[in-house]
Amino acid sequence: MGKAVLKENGVIWTSYLRFYYLSSAVAERSFAALDERRKRLHLPGLNSAGLNKLIWESWDWNAEGEEWTPSPEWKRSVLDTILAKHIPENGKVVEIGPGGGRWTETLLERSDHVTAVDISEECLKVCSERFSESENISFVLTPGDCLPEVEDGSIDAIWSFDVFVHINRKEVSKYAIDMFRVLRPGGVGVIHHGTVGGENGGWRSNMTAQGMIDELESAGFEIVDQFTEWTDQGKEHQAGLYGDAVTVFKKPG
Predict the structure, then answer these.
(1) pLDDT digit string (tens) for 33-50?
(2) Which of 69, 159, 197, 229 is the most exposed place for a label (fewest CB within 10 A)?
(3) Are 245 and 209 spatial neighbours (Cβ–Cβ below 8 Å)?
């Protein structure tokens, strides 16, 4: 096999191929080792609040977060079959982690008011400039585990996508308690998150699908739904490239 590849492609191409396979093997072993050590020693990995703040402060937001959109069709389906289905119109909404405003634009069109909460001052700056003409938005800086400045029982819905995939369970637990505080009775939340504790890569946190359910229920929420895929007009869509999920929850009342 090796001789045939060399004969048909030459020394340089074959050398690149060999380097590729060797590098892939090293990367897989390295990831397995660091993931095992992270779990055994309960390390935060790259998903601590401090590192999340550092990463998103220095991120290039020129693409406005659309670099994580697989296709326009996928995004439209998220808006039509998830956001529009669960986030009520004409309400007060908290968006956790607006980033470059990828979902904020639609939330502003549907809501009386949007409170954009982010760990990154740069993200809040980008969004304040992008939505400078909108009068129904305010911005709050969070330390990465709560919703400061948001009044008790004042919010109709919470939305967060492509954010909690990078937040460790310790911080998720604190967020869940504060989300329960700010939501009114009957208020709903939609959170996109990881499912297997980072085993699939993708810079995912140590959260699992069951872990998200446990933390939300412990805070007092009822789970409405949890799914990793959905079908829209006959086409199947994935919640994420790394086995991610979306959990919909509700405050009783």
Answers:
(1) 877 888 888 888 878 999
(2) 229
(3) yes
pLDDT per position as a tens digit, 111-146: 999 999 999 999 999 999 999 999 999 999 999 999
DSSP state letter for 61 = G
Mean pLDDT (10-residue bins), the chain, 253 residues? 72 80 79 79 85 93 94 97 97 98 97 98 97 97 97 98 97 98 98 92 92 98 98 95 96 96
Distances (CA, A) of 219 to 181, 195, 212: 9, 19, 11
What is the rounded distance in angstroms from the CA atom of residue 141 to the CA atom of residue 122?
10
Q: Is 49-250 a CATH 3.100.10.20 domain? A: no
- Extents of the domains making up the chain: 1-43, 49-250
3-state secondary structure of 153: coil
Q: List the beta bridge partners of residue 236.
A: 231
Residue 214, burial from CB neighbour count under 10 angstroms (0-12, 13-18, 19+):
middle
Residue 45 tokens read as 């990995």
Contacts of residue 60, defined as CB under 8 A and 6 or more positions apart, other chains included, come to none
Q: Which pair of tokens denotes residue 81?
A: 């079959």
